[in-house]
Amino acid sequence: MRDILLLTLLAAFLLSAGCAQAPDGSVSTPMSGTVQPSALSEGGADAAAGLRHMNVTFPAHDGARIDAEIADTAPEQERGLMERTHLGQNEGMLFVYGEERPLSFWMFHTRIPLDIVFISADGKVADVQSMEPCIGEDASACPVYRSAVPARWALEVNALFAAKYGITDGDGVRIED
């Protein structure tokens, strides 16, 4: 019985320790069916990860396209890109929320440096930040990355993606199948 309790506590800790939700709990439970409701409900499932994918493009910046895994449930968001050792050049993860709100992310057990692009409800870049890996065992040592303004989506991509394409606040974002 004690072993089952310990395993349950360990599983709960691991699920809550992803790169998405900050330790202060400031990211609320998301709702699915945002950007393109039909696209989110019909998106194909990735056989390995079990996550749907969508294309995220920045129309003003030629070639700035991401094949994004969709994280629109609390467990998917809590796991985020935690423990991954590689992210393809044009791959990322799109965190989907039901409404615009202040968002907070951290990088506990996230092994690769990332950029995070916060996107407003009107489909524009609201804020861009660089996030460093935090692979130690002390979660309190990991910085928290907060959106400068409320956002409805957050896109995690490889570090320097935003700089490479010149993506800045106010740029338009297109999210589709």
In words, what does this structure look like?
Helices cover 18% and strands 30% of the residues. By secondary structure, it is of the alpha+beta class. It has a single domain (2-176), classed as Jelly Rolls (Sandwich), CATH 2.60.120. The chain is globular, with a radius of gyration of 16 Å.
Low-confidence stretches: 1-20, 24-48
Assign the CATH architecture: Sandwich
CATH topology heading: Jelly Rolls
Number of strands: 9
Structural class: alpha+beta
Give the spatial strand order of the biggest sheet: 6-5-8-3-2-1-9
Mean pLDDT: 79
Can you tell me the CATH class? Mainly Beta
Approximate strand percentage: 25-35%
Give, in order, the helices and strands: HHEEHEEEEEEHE
Computed over alpha carbons, the radius of gyration is: 16 Å
Number of helices: 4
Helix content: 10-25%
Characterize the quaternary organization of these chains.
single chain
Q: Could you give a quick summary of the protein structure above?
A:
By secondary structure, the protein is an alpha+beta fold.
Q: What are the salient characteristics of this protein?
A:
single chain; 177 residues; alpha+beta; Jelly Rolls; seven-stranded mixed sheet; 4 helices; 9 strands
Itemize the secondary structure elements and their pairings:
Elements: H1 2-16, H2 37-42, E1 53-57, E2 65-71, H3 74-79, E3 91-101, E4 104-106, E5 114-119, E6 125-131, E7 144-146, E8 151-158, H4 161-165, E9 174-176
Parallel strand pairs: 2-3
Antiparallel strand pairs: 1-2, 1-9, 3-8, 4-7, 5-6, 5-8
